[in-house]
Amino acid sequence: KMAADTSVEILQKVLENEILQTAKVVEEHLDAEIQKLDQMDEDELECLKQRRLEALKKAQQQKQEWLSKGHGEYREIRSERDFFQEVKESKNVVCHFYRDTTFRCQIMDKHLTVLAKKHIETKFLKLNAEKSPFLCERLRIKVIPTLALVKDGKTQDYVVGFTDLGNTDDFTTETLEWRLGCADIINYSGNLMDPPFQSQKKFGTSFTKLDKTSIRGKKYDSDSDDD
């Protein structure tokens, strides 16, 4: 017990020291920034202000452009022709191939509705797999639901069923967000090395960041998912 207590104390000291070091670095950085601002003359400050305003204006214009192209909401498209048109005009597209009779598609819908509002940099669509046989054949979509992740007009990755989402119907929106972040199809602000599975013990496995080869390698593990 004494040894354990000593280990805990050492660990606490190390952590405290690390926190102090981090605080010191942050403080020094802030001091340097303040000093830089203090030494700026009127013209330089005005120039800085203009650059900030330009950046804000640009971000606002980008946002408006995305919204005008149908980003910001989760929409259904009617045909294969619509799919090609939609992916041509947006850099990042997530398209859910669904079927009315598949219950898991409704689960996917719920999460995608939330993410479409949060990540307006990406277009979120759904397309009925039964009405798009040519596209399903071309993209080799065999499991429903499947998300096709399209970047610059090319399908780069797939989320097939719920395999990459913890193999459960109860996965969280954050889990799907993380998976889309791994594919670089959204601007993900979390840590990709730390998947937000709600209960890793429940799945009996240790999840780490999936690299693209392992994700894509899983593409058609299951034959179908019709329940």
From TrEMBL:
Name recorded for this polypeptide: Thioredoxin domain-containing protein 9
Species, as recorded: Cariama cristata
On assembly, the entry states: Forms ternary complexes with the chaperonin TCP1 complex, spanning the cylindrical chaperonin cavity and contacting at least 2 subunits.
Q: Describe the location of the Thioredoxin domain by residue ranges.
A: 53-181
Its keywords, alphabetically, are:
Cytoplasm, Cytoskeleton, Nucleus, Phosphoprotein
Q: Nucleus among the record's keywords?
A: yes
Location (main, coarse): cytoplasm
Pfam families listed in its UniProt record: Thioredoxin
* Cell compartments where the protein resides: Cytoplasm, Cytoskeleton, Microtubule organizing center, Centrosome; Midbody; Nucleus
Q: Which InterPro entries match?
A: Thioredoxin-like_sf (IPR036249), Thioredoxin_domain (IPR013766)
